[in-house]
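User: Good morning. I'm curious how glyceraldehyde-3-phosphate would be positioned relative to this chain. Could you predict the structure with it bound?
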Amino acid sequence: MTRKPLMAGNWKMNLDHFEATSLVQKLAWALADADYDSEKSECVVLTPFTDIRSVQTLIESDKLPLGFGAQDVSAHDSGAYTGEVSATMLQKLNCSYVTVGHSERREYHAETDEIVNAKSRKVIEAGMTPIVCVGEGLDIRKEGRQVEYTVAQVEGAFAGWSAEEVAQVVVAYEPVWAIGTGEVATPEDAQEVCAAIRASLGSSFGADVADTVRVLYGGSVKASNVKEIMAQPDVDGALVGGASLKAEDFTPIVTFYA
Ligand SMILES: O=C[C@H](O)COP(=O)(O)O
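Assistant: Good morning! Here's the predicted structure, ligand included:
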C-alpha cells in the first residue's frame, strides 16, 4: 500500500490569529512558487485554538491546498470542564487533524497513556484524525530501551480499540531529546522505532492496519535533513515544530520529494 506522506506543522503556542493568517498566505504563495503537488504530500498546519477560525476561513475561501487542525482536545464531550475544547467543537470548525499526547502535554500536563487513549477516541468518534505522539526521553535512549518504551506507549494509546478504529490514526514518533534542541535522530534511529511501531500495530491489529497507518517522525526536522529522513521505508511524514513557523523553512520540507 502507498501511504501518502503527511507533513504537519505544529505551531505550538506561537502566532496569534493575525500572524496565523499571514503565515498561511505566505505558505500558500511559497508552495505555489515551488510547484507543490498535493498528490505527492499532504500539508497540514496545527494551530492554537484561537487561530483555527481565521485559518479555516482563509483556507476554505481561497481553496488553498492545506489541511488544518488543533494541538489538543478534551477527553470529555461537554459540560463543566473549564478551559477545555471538545472534539465536536473542533469538528464543527472542519478540523481534519488533532495532535494528541505530544510530549509537552505529557510532561507539563501529566497526560498518561490512558488520557491519550480517551482523547484520541473522541477525535475518531468526531470523524477527525488523531496524530498520536509517542517517544522516549534521553534517559530511556541512553539505556537503549527506546523501542520497548515507545511501543508500550502505542499499546497504551490504542488499548481496547478495534482494528477499524486504529486504521484511522496517524502515529508520530518524537524522541523527546530531539525536540527543539537541534539534535536530530539519525535516519536509522527514526527508522528503527518507526518500524517497531508498525510491527506492533501489525501484531495487535493485523497487517492491513500496519500497512495503512502513517507513522511520522518529529524532532528538529529541517530542509537540510528531511530528504534522508523521508527516505526511510517506515517514515511516512514529519511533525515539524520550529521549522513550520516560517513559510520559507516549511515549504522545502513539504516539497521534500522535489
Ligand atoms: O511537534 C513537533 C515537535 O515537537 C518537533 O519540534 P521541533 O521541530 O521544533 O524540534
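Residues 10, 102, 174, 179-180, 218-221, 239-243 surround glyceraldehyde-3-phosphate (CB under 6 Å). The beta strands are 6-10, 42-46, 67-70, 97-100, 129-134, 170-173, 214-218, 237-240.
Let me know if you'd like a different ligand tried.
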